[in-house]
Design brief:
The complex is a heterodimer of chains A (about 280) and B (about 375).
Chain A: H1 2-10, H2 21-44, H3 61-68, H4 70-103, H5 109-121, H6 124-138, H7 151-173, H8 178-186, H9 191-220, H10 223-228, H11 236-246, H12 250-282
Helix pairs in contact in A: 3-12, 4-7, 4-9, 4-11, 5-7, 7-9, 8-9, 9-12
Chain B: H1 2-9, E1 16-27, E2 30-41, E3 45-49, H2 56-64, E4 71-76, E5 79-80, E6 91-94, H3 106-115, H4 121-134, H5 150-162, E7 168-172, H6 180-197, E8 200-205, H7 208-214, E9 217-222, E10 225-230, H8 232-237, H9 242-247, E11 252-262, E12 265-270, E13 277-280, E14 290-295, E15 301-304, E16 318-328, E17 332-338, E18 346-352, E19 367-371, E20 378-380
Parallel strand pairs in B: 3-8, 3-9, 6-7, 7-8
Antiparallel strand pairs in B: 1-2, 1-4, 4-5, 9-10, 11-12, 11-14, 12-13, 14-20, 15-19, 16-17, 16-19, 17-18
Helix pairs in contact in B: 3-4, 3-5, 4-5
Classes of the chains: A mainly alpha (about 280), B alpha+beta (about 375).
Chain lengths: ~280, ~375
């Protein structure tokens, strides 16, 4: 009995992947490749050197410098404002699109369904050029005061991020038991009450996941934003790009680190809310 | 027009809570419900029974207002409800999947129907708690649905549907998701609950045992049509057509032609039997009519040819055969007896296993005599 136990410990079963050496190596390599660049970025934001190549000691002065950089802060505020507005609109549009595709049958529905998901697959550069041409053609006013000067970028962001919300929410709706909605109706709920009390509660995890996706997509989009932003409306990624054109200073690293922290925090927060909701539902 | 109809229907003698008038529903080219007319009395426990796809659920959904009829009308308590949406009908439903709101507590689930119609929170709470007591779920109010068993979830669905004191409660296959023991217990509870609340229950089921044991009256449906409406015992003992005879329980059908009618007695010449069958029943057909004689397996008496009593030659209702197959079911056994050398020449006979013995009273290849009384068979012409 004991001998056989030992034998089993030495020879992992075919499905015990985590106990196989090569699998552990692959796992480790994956983590290294994924996170080394980010770790380096964060580490060098504390580097006490103007040229970002050799480690010369620890400092936080580039964070202070980044905070004092009005252009960078402005770009940062712009990015966050655009992200919030475009996420909000994307959630509403995406949820409505998903609901329509789930609930109704209408002529040319497959075509419409394809058209909605097109922005997901279309090359960003094409989308960017298209946006630029579009806004120029309709004569979108320039030189508007803040925050109206961000309108173009926000519209562009909505147009490529709401399909993500739609796809996620649509997938979530596929698991909806129509009898739940019928039960609400049967118990006296009108169309709106059915939406509010039966459909939307089921959609909620999808709305959250889709919204999160839209938020991060908007926050770090460069290509499309580059084509739709003017000199007065610079976003964070565009600003970082312009800074890098001169030299990669630790200031850029510091700013990027802040962005990483924000993105990770928002993601973690959303996951935490989602977990809390599902565990509340479970008790 | 509906006003006139309403006042006419509300005469004191009229106890029908639901009148269904030649109701039809088609989905594209599929005729789900085909000209059904029914009257369901107030306080009745009514069952819609039929095989899957017979239209019983569609009929129930039309009563609930979840489907719009293609033709015909539904009158509930004297008012034409055919086009009234589900949320404004005095009818509530227990769904097959129970459809308990997963994001609401048990108490909020039960109180939902009151809350959504704008009743004060305090009253909603009190009535929801009373409804939970009614279905024996006191103290479960704070739980979430996924902390409940299937049976408890069904009780929540029941309480939720009863809280609005509907005129009619619709139940769509309410017991199909429960295990066998629980199902039997729930049957009694549903009947008791119906007696307590006094609300008309309409249950949809494909399980004949369920319908027979619970319902006051049963409508047997087939391919969108109602084939017979009757109390359980009448349905079993006096089916009016072959479909009902065959669907409810087990039956032997002998095809034949009515050869003579003499007072209460009919003589039928069955194709499989040498001697004519003599049957006593109220409904008589003219000689020459093509009929089927339906005989239940438990109404046939079987004796061994060697040891049995001597044949009474004046009794026509008997036939000789050979035991071909035996199905042991514990409480009784089904013997398949071949009475003619034709595919349809097998007769099922149910014999209770009266003696506690592993030794069978009959074995394969036994030559036996089957007998039945003149009032055991039912003659059907459709």
């Amino acid at each position: 009995m004991k001998v056989r136990d030992n034998a089993r410990r030495i020879q992992p079963g075919p499905l015990e992947y985590t106990r196989q050496a090569w699998m552990r190596m692959i796992l480790l390599a994956t983590f290294v490749f994924l996170y080394t660049p980010i770790a380096t970025l964060v580490a060098f934001s504390f580097n006490d050197s103007r040229r970002n190549i050799v480690w010369r000691g620890f400092t936080t002065k580039y964070y202070e410098k980044a905070l004092a950089n009005d252009g960078l802060i402005e770009a940062f505020v712009n990015s966050l404002s655009i992200a919030f507005v475009s996420t909000f609109i994307s959630i509403i549009l995406g949820a409505m699109t998903a609901f329509m595709l789930w609930r109704f049958r209408f002529p040319l529905k497959p075509l419409y369904e394809g058209a909605v998901t097109l922005p997901i697959v279309i090359p960003e550069i094409c989308m960017g050029v298209a946006m630029l041409v579009f806004f120029a053609r309709i004569g979108w006013p320039t030189g508007l005061p803040w925050p109206l000067n961000l309108g173009q970028i926000a519209i562009a962001h909505v147009s490529f991020s709401f399909p993500f919300v739609a796809v996620v929410v649509r997938a979530r709706l596929a698991s909806f038991n129509p009898e739940i909605a019928e039960a609400a109706r049967d118990l006296g709920a009108g169309e709106w009450a059915v939406m509010r009390d039966a459909v939307i509660p089921h959609m909620r995890p999808g709305l959250l996941a889709g919204g999160l996706l839209a938020f991060t997509l908007s926050l770090d989009d460069f290509v499309i934003t580059f084509f739709t932003s003017g000199p007065e409306s610079v976003t964070f990624p565009v600003k970082v790009y312009s800074m890098v054109r001169f030299s990669v200073t630790p200031e850029v690293n510091a700013a990027s680190t802040v962005l990483v922290v924000i993105t990770v925090t928002v993601t973690a927060l959303a996951l935490w809310i989602q977990n809390k909701q599902s565990s509340e539902a479970r008790g | 027009m509906t006003g006139d109809l309403g006042s006419e229907n509300r005469t004191p003698a009229d106890k029908a809570i639901i009148r269904i008038n030649s109701l039809s529903k088609n989905f594209g080219t599929i005729q789900a419900v085909d000209g059904v007319s029914l009257e369901i009395q107030a306080g009745e426990f009514f069952a819609l029974l039929g095989p899957s796809g017979c239209g019983k659920t569609t009929l129930l959904r039309m009563l609930a207002g979840l489907e719009t009829p293609s033709a015909g009308s539904i009158i509930i308590d004297g008012e034409d409800m055919s086009r009234v949406p589900a949320n404004r009908r005095p009818v509530n439903t227990v769904f097959q999947s129970y459809a308990v709101f997963p994001h609401l507590s048990v108490l909020d689930n039960v109180g939902y129907g009151l809350k959504v119609t704008g009743i004060r929170a305090v009253e909603v709470r009190d009535r929801a708690e009373a409804a939970l007591d009614l279905v024996k779920l006191e103290g479960y109010g704070a739980r979430m649905p996924d902390q409940l068993s299937g049976g408890q979830r069904q009780r929540v669905a029941l309480a939720r549907a009863l809280i609005k004191r509907p005129k009619v409660l619709l139940l769509d296959e309410p017991l199909s998701a429960l295990d066998a023991k629980l199902r039997e217990a729930m049957r009694h509870e549903l009947v008791n609950l119906q007696e307590t609340v006094g609300i008309t229950f309409i249950i949809v089921t494909h399980d004949q045992e369920e319908a027979l044991s619970m319902a006051d009256r049963i409508a047997v449906m087939d391919r969108g049509c109602v084939r017979q409406v009757a109390p359980p015992a009448q349905l079993y003992e006096f089916p009016t057509n072959r479909f009902v005879a065959d669907f409810i329980g087990s039956v032997n059908l002998l095809e034949g032609i009515v050869s003579a009618v003499d007072g209460a007695e009919m003589t039928v010449q069955a194709a499989l039997l040498a001697a004519p069958l003599r049957i006593v029943q109220d409904k008589r057909f003219v000689p020459g009519t093509k009929v089927w004689v339906a005989i239940r397996p438990e109404k046939i008496n079987m004796t061994k040819l060697e040891t049995g009593p001597t044949l009474r030659l004046d009794d026509n209702n008997q036939v000789e055969g050979i035991v071909e197959e035996i199905t042991y079911l514990g409480d009784f056994s089904i013997y398949h007896v071949r009475i003619a050398d034709r595919p349809e020449g097998l007769v099922k006979v149910a014999v209770p296993n009266f003696d506690r013995a592993t030794l069978r009273p009959f074995i394969w290849e036994d030559r036996v005599i089957l007998r039945w009384n003149p009032n055991s068979g039912v003659v059907l012409d459709s």
